[in-house]
TrEMBL record:
It comes from the Bacteria. Residues 80-269 form the ABC transmembrane type-1 domain. Keywords: Cell membrane, Membrane, Transmembrane, Transmembrane helix, Transport. This is Dipeptide transport system permease protein DppC (TC 3.A.1.5.2).
Amino acid sequence: MAARASAPRWLRALLSSATGWFGVIVVVLLALTAVVSLFWMPFDPMLSDIRGRWATPSWPHLLGTDGTGRDILSLLMAGARTTVFVAVGSGIVATIVGILLAALGALTARWMRETVAVLVDILIAFPVLMIAMMISAVWGGSLWVVVFSVGIGFGVSIARVTRPELRRVQQSDFVVAGRASGLTNGQNLIRHLLPNVAPVFIVQLSWSMAVAVLAEAGLSYLGFGASLTESSWGLLLADLQRYIGVHPLTVVWPGLAITITVLGLNLLGDALREATDPTLSRRAAQVHLPEAIA
């Protein structure tokens, strides 16, 4: 009980919802699978065994094998590393780009704010997948291309949503008081502005990471993402979908992994927004206040 009482309020609120629990479980399992795959996997994911191809789920191949005899469970575990790398990498790039553009578009001189607003409107008109495909056509398909193209694309989207929130919070009394006490724009940004726009930023970032997983799978499926020497759920799906009429069960596993991961990231973002948004907490308190008085 003492440990639970000392936990932050937002963490208690996050774990009190079913969606928050589901998102946390999915993200933790994904991270654990990626870490465990660095040290142990049932089989070498690139080891082919022609005599054991298209094995049904049984021991020792718990999820069966593909057309070359590779263990599907090992392929999924190795692909989890790629998924974590792309989600975290694109999330970091999107965070840097989003905060930088939002700050320039909210805290600088008028001419800079208008320039950034026009630049964001221009960049957001280009679909992320199209940008990634164009970059891949020039530089070749790789996970780094996916990370930077998806990160920059969704960083622009984050900046477009976060910039108006920064402008709104900037007019608050506590920000004005901080400026009057001698805080610079950068100090105000870190101490007051970013914490107050965190709920909006978090849900956008989690959605961006979820779509990054889909983008990596889709680009790898089309041949613009991971190379053939790397493990990817998208590549595995592309290999197996040709035999869906003969061995439909094998296609289920990578598709299910992608679906659950994207769903978990989206639900975790929604739960975090509800747990960290002070306006939602105040609204909930107002709803329960009459009941408490009664």
